[in-house]
Write a structure and sequence with these properties.
mainly alpha, globular, DNA Binding (I), subunit A, binds zinc ion, about 10% strand, about 80 residues
Length: about 80
């Protein structure tokens, strides 16, 4: 991980807390992954595009767009998620 990436990881965790954006599970530090809201392949590379997520949700979301993912898995919209829409 580059210095910039490390900084983004820390800032994202400070901003979002240690709770998965999607399933709201509380995560230990070593369980936290960062989801790219707009998939990397579609150019989402800034810090505003990152969200704390558990590995399961991150894997499930894969390269789906946020709305596709929410619809497909029946995930309720909450304030935190709405910030990215
Ligand atoms: Zn999750």
């Amino acid at each position: 991980m580059s210095k910039i990436q490390q900084k983004w990881v820390i800032q994202t965790i400070l901003r979002d807390g240690n709770v998965c954006l999607y399933c709201k599970k509380e995560l230990k530090y070593n369980e936290i992954t960062l989801d790219h809201i707009v998939p990397k392949s579609l150019g989402g590379r800034e810090i505003n595009n990152l969200a704390v997520s558990c590995l399961d949700c991150n894997r499930l979301k894969g390269s789906l767009l946020l709305t596709e993912f929410l619809n497909r898995h029946g995930i309720e919209l909450n304030e935190k998620i709405a910030r990215y829409l």
